[in-house]
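User: Sequence recovery, please. Input:
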């Protein structure tokens, strides 16, 4: 039963993340990750690790985010599309913010390309918005309006109101009116 119970860690973590409670999202993900590691399960654990990398990035904990992203990168199956997108986006943001490393652009571009091959509109939108964030971090400016518009269109097509609100909050926090991004 352990697997069935912890396999659900992504659901409450996602809810907490959408609600803006990153600490609660982290707790759910860490518990799921650690319990899956204890029973030797890798596939879902690596997805949780990539998701945890995203949450840790949002908390400003770049070194930890990088560690979880790289662990996921090293062992995730090539055909595990969701995990491949998540770790690339997380690592790209870390490299851009912490190191100003231009390699972040290629990683973010790979995440967008991979996400575009699926019908997961929200994940595609997140990858595109993360690419916009990487560009802003590296260039010291604002997220490119064309990328923000593309992410918004994907979220609207999906009906992903929570992601639309997150983008709006982030842009407002940066002093960018949502209509101009």
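Assistant: Recovered sequence (181 residues):
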């Amino acid at each position: 039963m352990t697997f069935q119970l912890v396999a659900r860690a992504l659901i409450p973590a996602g809810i907490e993340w959408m609600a803006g409670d990153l600490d609660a999202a982290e707790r759910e993900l860490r518990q799921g990750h650690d319990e899956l590691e204890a029973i030797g399960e890798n596939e879902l654990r690596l997805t949780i690790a990539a998701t945890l990398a995203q949450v840790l990035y949002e908390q400003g904990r770049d070194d930890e985010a990088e560690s979880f992203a790289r662990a996921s990168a090293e062992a995730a199956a090539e055909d595990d599309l969701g995990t491949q997108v998540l770790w690339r986006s997380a690592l790209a943001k870390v490299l851009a913010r912490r190191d100003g490393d231009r390699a972040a652009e290629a990683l973010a571009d790979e995440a967008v390309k991979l996400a575009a091959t699926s019908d997961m509109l929200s994940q595609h939108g997140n990858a595109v918005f993360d690419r916009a964030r990487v560009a802003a971090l590296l260039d010291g400016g604002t997220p490119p309006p064309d990328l923000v518009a593309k992410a918004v269109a994907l979220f609207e097509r999906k009906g992903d109101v929570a992601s639309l609100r997150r983008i709006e909050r982030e842009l407002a926090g940066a002093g960018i009116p949502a209509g101009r991004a």
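The mean pLDDT is 93.
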